[in-house]
Amino acid sequence: MTVRELAQLVTAGGRQAEDLRSDADSVRRETLGDDVHLRGIIEFSNHCRCTCCYCGVRRDNGNLTRYRMSPSEIVEAADLVASLGVGTVVLQSGEDPWWTAERLAGVIERIKARTRLAVTLSVGEREEWEYRLWRQAGADRYLLRHETSDPELYARLHPGASLDSRLRCLDTLAELGYQIGAGCIIGLPGQTPESLARDLLLLRRLNVHMAGMGPLVPHPQTPLAAMPVGPAEVTLNMLALTRLLVPDVMLPATTALETVMEGGRLAGLRAGANVIMPNLTPRRYARLYEIYPGKKAPTIEIAEEVDRALKVIQAARRGVGVGPGHSPRAALAVA
């Protein structure tokens, strides 16, 4: 598809949107079957050196109580993830220099020694040698959302950073053998249907194994506090188009979508998604990892969070994936 064709579909409504999402769901079924895989997120530090304009854990948010989980706390939380039958743990944090490559490698090694979990990292831009060390320690995947494919918009939203640097990191991660994930925010200031179309084409060019995208949920302690919530219907169209462009991608129905739209995760599953990522951060920390406001997970117990995800899968008349749920492409590469 061309940028112009994709841009028209990004904003499709009515019957056209229904058909788009139905087509994507059919491709998902034919390519990956009906399993929905769970990825348990552990948000282990809300310290961050970055000043991203949309993010509540940005360095300049002086109203946020900061925390770091200890290595042992992270390993214990991963043990709980495994005991709940979830096949993947996602270790996510701000860009926190206290977490050196060696410290995080030690945590990965301990998790791998104690469980059969796949380990996904989401800790931002780091040096090649750090990515290599974590891969050697056993990390399987790396999620590094590109946020927007528009270089000028990226620079405005990420002071002191560049889209080129982020894309170089993604290329490095792929070369090191990670299953890579990228993705964008829908509803950014200055974003157009054409720039969203280019986001989709970038995902295809990167040949991502995972794609994470969701609507903007403005945080009151950021420069985008006055922005409207990102459009849920456009987000669903973006999920569907991602599925059509990268048929075997592992595609989450995100909690951000659920935050802005009642039943958003179920709608996401019906638009081609095949992953749900319950927040399994220890409750005493979860409320403090406030990238955006209104997250529901910190108010309920961890077991209930998993149970709610299972009920969404049941409502979609789908099954729960067993095991790590690796990308089929990655599985073929190993074989």
End-to-end span in angstroms? 32 Å
Described by the principal axes of the CA atoms, the overall outline is globular
Unreliable spans are none
CATH homologous group name: Aldolase class I
The proportion of strand residues reads 5-15%
Describe what this molecule looks like in 3D.
The structure is a single chain. With 335 residues, the chain is α/β, with parallel strands linked by helices. The chain has a single domain, classed as TIM Barrel, CATH 3.20.20.70. 44% of the residues lie in helices and 12% in strands. It is built from 14 helices and ten strands. The protein has helices at 3-10, 14-32, 71-83, 101-114, 128-137, 151-157, 163-175, 193-206, 232-245, 255-260, 264-269, 283-286, 302-315, 328-334; strands at residues 35-45, 88-93, 118-122, 141-143, 179-182, 185-186, 210-211, 214-215, 275-276, 319-320. The strands form two sheets. Strands 1, 2, 3, 4, 5, 7, 9 and 10 form an eight-stranded parallel beta sheet that branches. Strands 6-8 form a two-stranded parallel sheet. Helix 3 runs parallel beside helix 4, helix 4 (101-114) packs parallel to helix 5 and helix 8 packs parallel to helix 9 (232-245). The radius of gyration is 18 Å and the shape is globular. The mean pLDDT is 95.
Essential attributes:
eight-stranded parallel sheet, TIM Barrel, globular, 12% strand, 44% helix, single chain, 335 residues, alpha/beta, 10 strands, two-stranded parallel ribbon
